[in-house]
Design a protein that fits this description.
This protein is an all-alpha fold and about 260 residues long. It has one domain. It is about 80% helix and about 0% strand. The chain has ten helices and two strands; from the N terminus they run ααβαααβααααα. It has a two-stranded parallel ribbon. Helix 5 packs antiparallel against helix 6, helix 5 packs antiparallel against helix 10 and helix 6 packs across helix 7.
């Protein structure tokens, strides 16, 4: 009598299979597409507002004595300061939606090495967030520039630098949001934390006259991002600010991995 041997290939349990799975999940849920549509509409509206506001200031001599035009990439920077929360929501939903529906259990069954779950989500999100933000920034620059009219500076080199800088920052902010999503697990809780750390707290502290609070704001992800985008050297240089952002993104993902390995799904 012979014994039949069945070999089962567990491709899905590896990193490559996990990446393919996360890519499929990202684009087969309605929330991803609704997020993109909402972000495009909000970006366009904000860009038009910023563009008209800039033109009004020039025409009413708010910039008296300044004859230079305004770079259209600056509209992208201003718009994405607000829209970044929508992009962060896009990133965190890849995590929190699984906890909300209970599908995280299936994910961990198919990918038992939990490190691969976090890595796969980060690997999928990084290029998607970069291209997503780049698209939004182009929309903001064009619509804002048209709204500025004769006061718009369309210098290509400056525009490319602004677009790449914004895309880099928002991508890291999105990865940070995905990392803390593994810790908080709730969509509302994660979005609140991201909103506070990316916009509210850094903005409030940076307006303070207390030097220690200004430094603290620059060390938060949102404050470091604003320092990086503005090319300001006070209190941190753009390069240092970028390193702070990288640290926050990597730290959040590692913290998320640690929680995922120690806590039941």
């Amino acid at each position: 009598m012979t014994t039949a041997t069945i070999t089962v290939q567990r491709r899905s349990s590896g990193l490559r299979g996990a990446i393919a799975s996360e890519w499929t999940k990202l684009w087969t849920v309605r929330s991803s597409w609704l997020n993109i549509v909402a972000a495009l509409v909000l970006t366009g509206l904000l860009a038009v507002q910023f563009g008209f506001s800039t033109a009004y200031d020039y025409e009413n001599r708010a910039y008296e004595g300044v004859m230079d035009k305004s770079a259209v990439g600056g509209v992208a920077v201003s718009s994405m300061t607000i829209v970044q929360v929508v992009v962060a929501a896009f990133a965190m939903l890849l995590v929190t939606s699984e906890y909300a529906t209970g599908s995280i259990r299936s994910t961990l069954q198919w990918t038992p090495v939990r490190r691969n779950v976090v890595l796969a989500k980060a690997i999928v999100l990084a290029p998607v967030l970069f291209i997503y933000t780049l698209l939004l920034s182009v929309v903001a620059s064009i619509t804002g520039g048209l709204a500025m009219g004769q006061w718009a500076d369309w210098d290509l080199k400056t525009l490319v630098i602004d677009l790449l800088s914004v895309a880099t920052y928002v991508t890291l902010a999105g990865l940070f949001a995905a990392g803390i999503a593994f810790i908080i697990r709730s969509t509302a809780g994660t979005l609140t934390a991201a909103f506070l750390l990316l916009i509210v707290i850094p903005m409030m502290m940076s307006q303070s006259s207390i030097r220690a609070l200004i430094w603290l704001a620059a060390l938060l992800p949102g404050g470091a991002g604003q320092n990086y985008l503005s090319s300001s050297t006070d209190p941190l240089s753009p390069t240092t600010s970028l390193l702070v952002l990288l640290t926050w993104a990597a730290g959040a993902l590692y913290a998320g991995y640690t929680v995922l390995t120690r806590r039941d799904a």
